[in-house]
Amino acid sequence: MSYVALFGNPNTGKTSLFNCLTGSYEYVGNWSGVTVEKKVGVLRQHGVPVVDLPGIYSLQPLSRDEGVATDFLLTEPCSAIVNIVDASQLQRNLHLTVQLLEFGRPLIIALNMVDVAEKRGIKIDAVKLSRHLGVPVVPVIARTGKGAKELERAILSAKDGHHSRMFIDYGVEVERAIRRIAEQLPDDVPGDKRWMALQFLEGNERLAAYLRDHFDLSPLLAIRKETEQALGCQAAKHIYETRDRWISETIAAAAIEFKPKPLTLTEKVDAVVTNRYVGLPIFLALMYIVFMLTFNWLGTPLADQLDTFFSGPLTDWLSRLLDWAGASPFIEALVLDGIVAGVGGVLVFVPQIFILFFFISLLEDSGYMARVAMVMDRLMEAIGLNGKAFIPMIIGFGCNVPGVMAARTIEQPKERLLTMLLLPFMSCSARLPVYALFAGTFFIHEQALVVFSLYVLGIVVALGLAKLFSSTVFKNESSLFVIELPPYRVPQALTLWRSTWEKGKGFVRKAGTFIFGGSVAIWLLTYVGPHGVGVPMDDSLLAAIGGLIAPLLAPLGFGAWQAGAALITGFLAKEVVVSTMNIIYHVREANGLEQMIAAHFTPLSALSFMVFVLLYTPCLATVATIRKETGSWKWTLLSIGIALTVAYMISFLVYQVGMMFHFQ
Amino acid sequence: MKGESVMIANIIIGGAIFVYAGWVLVRHVKKSAKGTCAACHLADRCSGSCGPER
Amino acid sequence: MVLTDLHKGETAVVVRLAVEHEALKQRLLHLGVKEGKMVRVKAAMPFGGPVMVEVDGQAIGLRRKEASSIEVK
Ligand SMILES: Nc1nc2c(ncn2[C@@H]2O[C@H](COP(=O)(O)OP(=O)(O)O)[C@@H](O)[C@H]2O)c(=O)[nH]1
Ligand SMILES: [Mg+2]
């Protein structure tokens, strides 16, 4: 299968364009490093497979996500390349374009962000640019889909056709080196031999590693060395400068009207949010407002209404339906005490989850995300990480799995590894129902504050451990930080809704599938005992299982089998902690659950329990992702080990210190 | 007659619930073990962290 | 003079990129920070945190240590 591949600098609208072309809803955000994995779709109506790739500045990758794009060129066949070029940043975008032209496949340029460029007083003559580069240039606005049809036509007609005759003369020394290297290359290398030789001379490590698998590189290295001696500088520098001059000429020929105007919106907002003194306080204040909205002002009232509906009208209606169908008591208990309790208990928190996701989407789409990374960098540097690690952490608040994957954009291997290992301490949305349930029962008035503190505790623990590790295990590794700060964009209502929905619908779907299944299984475990069926819950299998670890948990304040059972099932997915609690403590009446829980927990032990759930172990999916991304079981198991130990220690402290001060 | 059809209804409802529950459970565990999280926006398309292993 | 000597809002021309870290230097080049380019300091984070500079209408955040190895005039 031969792909049409989308290449371009980060944050130029590749994914937006991919979504237009294929009708998908991939993840779009206004910062560099949103897409960290290749995504495959199909060109509508034509059945042509299209791939979206992470953004790159050049074909020499500095980080894992960039490596994905280079590897694609080296290992996968492509019938055409669509190069998305940001019209407002032509100079640096064309550096990649040149490299892609040299690769020697049919290429189409999608000139994106023409609206932004125009606002800045830059107008580009697509026809002239096309003539200069020898490839079709199609102006588009990926955000609104303008020009997508024309682009599609251009792709279909260029596909599998000729490639550009564009040629840059790099001067005698380099040209000689190119010829000598090309002679040595086998015939079956991907891409043009000239391209390959140039990339090698530029010091593309990924390509060198690829070639090394096929043959001995020492003659090529010798050629590079000779050339560099003749040039009197690094070949990479020489090639870069030659290209840069060529690009300037191209732009001079094709771009009309340059009258740079400052981006007033961005300037004004930045003057406040990246202010020396108020930058960090503003970030914290915004977070606090988000929590108040999620838990106090908006989310909780909505959740309460849902809860009343589930435990009132829905239960009545279902039980009447079951009666009418003549269901046996067994089925009735299964449905009402198992499924309604388990699934409903999680579904009632949908309002809170959606509100939180809405704000995460807002953060992602506005351009503030990269600023947060910069504002946080000083703190992160002090603990041996860099500001960019904060982005995966924020994504981790939604779900830890994409958070772990987002760590790919971090250049230094050590910082990336640390970020992945500590990411599970970020409180993902699946843990939110647990807080909402317990804080809603025991800390009615301080709910937002308690939950906010839990989120902060997760961050503090992660940062503390990062400090510990970077001053012991990972000593003496240099740290690196450079980040592109995109202009702010006013988020579009539709995009915002879509990305909120895309995130939130997973939660709803999960309730209908896995949590449904889990609830049935858990209810069955409460129904069946080692000595028969229909036993009292305390003699059930679930009690036996939970009882195994209950003594261990007693010093933390929740030594009952119920808590143990809930925590074990929570490893599969953290929402299930709440489902299990609901099924165990289920009484068929409104507010029954909260009374039951209040009878089994004290505010202190509830707090200790929430702390434990926050920290105790990454869920199965996160564990698998850490395993894949680190490529090592050792680090994965370490991550789980650290989590369990830290959770135990902190919950122990919370409970024992609380007891000492007679705080109940 | 009445008793029998009620029995059958019970078996069908119960059976459907258990079969569905078992199926989604197995599927979830299989998918999670590959690194896909059902509650995340990548859920539909993501086949886990499918990047090149190095 | 180096980049960190500039005050907020000041503009200067890059004369030399003496950044040690090779990968970082490549990244800066690709972001458009190179000899002969006008740069403007937009903000500086407190406690020796990163500086925010603007090149070609593109804002970039980088650490003070690296910024101080960029010579300007
Ligand atoms: N004004 C404007 N914004 C755009 C355009 N295309 C994309 N964007 C925005 O640019 C940001 C980056 O888009 P994305 O598709 O994630 O870029 P990628 O990183 O290249 O995949 C998002 O906030 C988009 O809404 C465009 O043509 N005009
Ligand atoms: Mg993208």
TrEMBL record, chain A:
The keyword Nucleotidyltransferase does not apply. GTP binds at residues 8-15, 33-37, 52-55, 112-115. Keywords: Cell inner membrane, Cell membrane, GTP-binding, Ion transport, Iron, Iron transport, Magnesium, Membrane, Metal-binding, Nucleotide-binding, Transmembrane, Transmembrane helix, Transport. GO terms for cellular component: plasma membrane. One of its GO terms (molecular function) is metal ion binding. Residues 1-161 form the FeoB-type G domain. It is a multi-pass membrane protein. Mg(2+) 1 binds at residue 22. Mg(2+) 2 binds at residues 19, 23. The chain crosses the membrane at residues 277-297, 343-363, 383-405, 417-444, 450-469, 507-528, 597-623, 635-655. InterPro entries: Fe2_transport_prot-B (IPR003373), Fe2_transport_prot_B_C (IPR011640), FeoB_Cyto (IPR041069), FeoB_GTPase (IPR050860), G_FEOB_dom (IPR030389), Gate_dom (IPR011642), GTP-bd (IPR006073), P-loop_NTPase (IPR027417). It is found in: Cell inner membrane; Cell membrane. It comes from the Bacteria. Probable transporter of a GTP-driven Fe(2+) uptake system. NCBIfam families: feoB. Belongs to the TRAFAC class TrmE-Era-EngA-EngB-Septin-like GTPase superfamily. FeoB GTPase (TC 9.A.8) family. This is Ferrous iron transport protein B.
UniProtKB/TrEMBL annotation, chain B:
It comes from the Bacteria. This is FeoB-associated Cys-rich membrane protein. Keywords: Membrane, Transmembrane, Transmembrane helix. The lineage of its organism: Bacteria, Bacillati, Bacillota, Bacilli, Bacillales. The chain crosses the membrane at residues 6-26.
Automatic annotation (TrEMBL), chain C:
Keywords: Iron. Pfam families: FeoA (PF04023). It comes from the Bacteria. InterPro entries: Fe-transptr_FeoA-like, FeoA, FeoA_core_dom, Transcriptional_repressor_C. Residues 1-73 form the Ferrous iron transporter FeoA-like domain. One of its GO terms (molecular function) is transition metal ion binding. This is Probable ferrous iron transport protein A.
